[in-house]
Design goal:
Length: 154
C-alpha cells in the first residue's frame, strides 16, 4: 500500500514537472522566434519602406545636385562617403555599432544565455560553447557568463 501511494505521488510530481518544462520551452521558443532578426526583417510593415527607402523626390533632387557639382567636388564627396562607410564597418567589427541593443541582449542573457552570447559575438566562438556548457550544467552560471559577455566584462 505504501509503495503504491509513493508511486502515485512520484507520477504526479513528474507530470507537474513535464507541464512546467513544456511551458518554459514554449515560452523560450516564442521569445527566440519573436527576437529573430531574420523574422523581423521579413515581416511587412507600413513604416518599413519609409525607413529604408527615401522618397523619390528626395533621390531625384540629390542626383540633380550631385550632377551639378564639378568633377573635383564629386570625387571628394565620393571619398568622404567611402571614408564614412569604412569607419562604420570598422566600428561594427569592433562592437561599437549603434544598433546593438543592450537591453534586449540582457533580457536574452537571462532567458537564453547561449543565444545572447551568439548575437553579441555575431559568430560561434569559444564563448558561445562555454555558455552552452554552463547553461546545460546549471542555469545560473550560464546566465552570469552571458551577462558578462553581453556587457563586455569578459
Amino acid at each position: 500500500m505504501n509503495l503504491n501511494i509513493s508511486s502515485v505521488y512520484l507520477f504526479t510530481k513528474l507530470d507537474n514537472m513535464k507541464k512546467i518544462t513544456t511551458r518554459i520551452l514554449t515560452l523560450l521558443v516564442m521569445v527566440s522566434v519573436c527576437t529573430s532578426p531574420a523574422l523581423a526583417a521579413s515581416l511587412p510593415s507600413a513604416d518599413n519602406t519609409a525607413k529604408t527607402e527615401p522618397a523619390t523626390a528626395t533621390v531625384n533632387t540629390a542626383v540633380e545636385e550631385f550632377k551639378s557639382l564639378s568633377k573635383h567636388e564629386r570625387k571628394t564627396r565620393i571619398k568622404e562617403a567611402k571614408k564614412v562607410l569604412k569607419d562604420y564597418k570598422a566600428d561594427k567589427r569592433a562592437g561599437r555599432a549603434a544598433e546593438t541593443d543592450q537591453v534586449l541582449l540582457a533580457i536574452l542573457a537571462i532567458l537564453l544565455p547561449p543565444l545572447a552570447v551568439y548575437l553579441k559575438e555575431e559568430e560561434i566562438t569559444a564563448k558561445f560553447w562555454i555558455s552552452i556548457l554552463l547553461t546545460l550544467l546549471f542555469w545560473i552560471p550560464g546566465v552570469i557568463f552571458a551577462l558578462l559577455v553581453v556587457f563586455d566584462a569578459i
